[in-house]
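Question (not urgent): is this output format expected?
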Amino acid sequence: MDVNAHVRDPREHVNEEPRNDLGDLLAGFFGMTGFMTVVFFGMVIVKFILSV
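Got this back:
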């Protein structure tokens, strides 16, 4: 019984471009930190306006 199995080595990283991993990590970290800072201060302003 022959089975036509197309096995690929998972180390090929066909859909991944590993050249800029540190840059991607830093962009994601600081991007999310900046976004959460904006959300935090926005909520503080909303709370201040609604508590008056």
